[in-house]
Amino acid sequence: MTVLDTDFVRAQFPAFQEAALDGQAFFENAGGSYTCRPVIDRLFRFYRQRKVQPYAPYEASRLGGEEMDQARARLAALMGVEAEEVSFGPSTSANTFVLAQAVRKWLAGTGGAVVVTNQDHEANSGVWRRLAEEGIEVREWRIDPETGHLDPAALGRLLEDGRVKLVCFPHCSNVVGEINPVTQICGMARAAGAFTCVDGVSYAPHGFPDMAALGADVYLFSAYKTYGPHQGIMVIRRAFGELLPAQGHWFNAGTLSKRFTPAGPDHAQIAACAGMADYIDDLHAHHFAPEPDATARNRAVHGLMRAQEVRLLQPLLDQLAARNDLRLIGPRQAESRAPTVAVALDGPAERVAAALAAKGIMAGGGDFYAGRPLEAMGVDLGRGVLRLSFVHYTSQAEVAKLMLALDEVLSA
Questions:
Q1: Which of 44, 76, 170, 258 is close enough to 252 for a disulfide, judged by CB 3.0 to 4.6 Å?
Q2: Quick check: helix, strand or coil at residue 191?
């Protein structure tokens, strides 16, 4: 089996060559990843050469517009969707908010219901819960308070009466880490006559989605967590997107990629998003034989990333599970989860994060906008959790350094 070439990968990220970051092991990737070189190069070029209003006939403008279009088309090809099914916005929270306003108008007065979980980050929770203000029924799909697991059987019971029109859930939680069976859940919702909205923010850094395989109607993620600029990316399939009321300028209502973009997008950052596709293609070219299909390249690189993460994650999970002075949240098996690991401690997690920082470990403590799942699992929000998160560019030496630092800090 092909193994990820970590040296090659790290050479694609300028952060690893920065003197200011030398000796620092980065374990807060769930809050935002390092940016890959192709994204930085494209952003720099746009600001230097093409920072004008795009789509005019003069050369700088024409080239700027072409780069923006290229970003949408390249990402769409990776995910196996139409280019118009990809929308950009300032953040995933903003994209979800706009989408919720469209759903509010669509469902108001119809008797339709929405399902939301208490496993989600607040971005894919609060906006849907507020639909109740319009008389729309909001049903909560609840996690197991011990494990944080979302049981599909419990969703089945919520769908039985046929009134649910939208199911909103995460690909994986940013504190539980368990990878939810998206394909199964989307199939259940579809059979009950409901659409699906998947928050992929915490999963997409570990592999861009294959939309045909997942079957989701909406998939949301953040470019700044997938090695890119600070943009939110929303894939909305045409059947659902054209059913909802447009939220942008009236004259853009006929263009799916603009229907849910009420404000002008950041041109330079959209153009730079093509660098994420460059990076995936570079990884594929380095590790595999040529493959003309972009979605197939994405699948191969996705598998490469996940295999590396699973290999590095299991020893860390074993170490944490063996301790009796903390609570490891989520699955103990690396194959079942993303490498986003939250632990509840006897005291404030931020103090432990600060102690780790003194040992060259960059990690965070707090609630990470996941107050609902943490409360449901009985975690004291005043203490929060220590979150340790990594991605495929993390090295085995960095994980070993983290494990040693954890033993020293937690045993002190």
A1: 258
A2: helix
pLDDT (tens digit per residue) in 191-219:
999 999 999 999 999 999 999 999 999 99
pTM here is: 0.97
Cβ pair 279, 39 in contact under 8 A: yes
Determine contact, residues 146/154, Cβ cutoff 8 Å: no
218: left (phi over 0), alpha (psi -120 to 50) or beta: beta
| CATH class of the structural domain 43-277 | alpha beta
Residue-wise pLDDT tens digits, 375-406? 999 999 999 999 999 999 999 999 999 999 99
The tokens for 357 are 């920082």
**What is the C-alpha to C-alpha distance for residues 87 and 270, in angstroms, rounded to an integer?**
10
Residue that is written with structure tokens 């080239």 in the block: 63
Instruction: State whether the Cα torsion 261-114-142-184 is positive or negative.
Output: negative
DSSP letters, 39-72, are HHHHHHHHHHH--S-TTSSSHHHHHHHHHHHHHH
Q: Which two tokens stand for residue 407?
A: 């033993």
